[in-house]
Amino acid sequence: MCLGIPGQLVELPNEHEHLARVEVAGVGRVVNVGLIADEALRVGDWILVHVGFALMRITEAEAATALASLEMMGESFDQEEALTES
Which end is more exposed in the chain, N or C (fewer Cβ atoms within 10 Å of the end residue's Cβ)? Predict the structure, then answer.
């Protein structure tokens, strides 16, 4: 299964036009925004990231929903793992 992870743009350096710094679940990452370069990206925007590439800009509400869903999936995995270990 492939997942797109919401990330918030925190820096758009000028020297590398297709690279941006994004915060994903509190962790800073550099991602390639070349696929959505035609959009007017700004610091604070939310984007959907997959294997280091920004696929699309998303709203803050969409990001919150996706993050909550990922959190629930992680909790379910942890519960299943605990059951198999007991």
Answer: N
